[in-house]
Amino acid sequence: MALPSTIYKVSIQLSDVDRGIYESLQATVAKHPSETNERLVARLLAWGIFYEADLAFTKGICATDEPDIWLTGPDGRVMLWIEAGLPDSDRIVRACRHSERVALLASGKALSNWDQQHLSKLGGLSNLTVVSLEQLFINRLADMLERSFDWSMTITEGTVYLTVNGDTLETSINVKYGTLTVG
Questions:
Q1: Domains of the chain in sequence order
Q2: Which residues pair with 109 in a beta bridge?
Q3: Range 138-174 burial, b when 16+ CB lie within 10 A, else e
Q4: Distance between CA atoms of residues 155 and 161, nearest Å
Q5: Torsions phi, psi of 82, nearest 5?
Q6: What are the distances in angstroms from CA 151 to CA 9, 56, 114, 124, 182?
Q7: Neighbours of 3 (CB within 10 A)
Q8: Spatial separation of the C-alpha atoms in residues 41 and 139, rounded to whole Å
Q9: pLDDT for residue 38
Q10: Matching InterPro entries, A to Z (predicted)?
Q11: How far apart are CA 45 and CA 162, in angstroms?
Q12: Does the reported pTM lie above 0.90?
């Protein structure tokens, strides 16, 4: 018998000063049994960092033909494809062919190996942005994860300030490829 997904209720007060976005975000997000808390946190951070109106979580890990988060147009075209983690470069190249824009929050324990193996294969993809955050930042947030939580997330001058349970953490957004811009 398969284990059920764990449901999280999320509230994020987003202040992206760099892009002039100020929103109250609410979501109910499912964490697949094979997904780590760190990957769930990375998906939520990617949602905030790349936020645009109508951005939606997909079926996630269970749907291999969908990203973690996306923005689709009225005609069904994928306007923005967002991944979190360390996907294969072939998956990112395919996404770039079929989407207007692709963004990746590269995160995981093997990030430096992933950089060496995959970043060079992504050259020439003009619609791709790859960023990373300090893994210790993600790990600390994963340790603080509860089934229902509120984050206050401020992004300014390429730095993320995140307040949860009265503690404020900060990390720089490391742009590895492309640029962090409004769509």
A1: 6-177 (3.10.640.10)
A2: none
A3: bebbeebeeeebebebbbeeeebebebeeeebebebe
A4: 6
A5: -120, 130
A6: 11, 18, 29, 36, 22
A7: 8
A8: 8
A9: 96
A10: Restrct_endonuc-II-like, YaeQ, YaeQ_sf
A11: 10
A12: yes
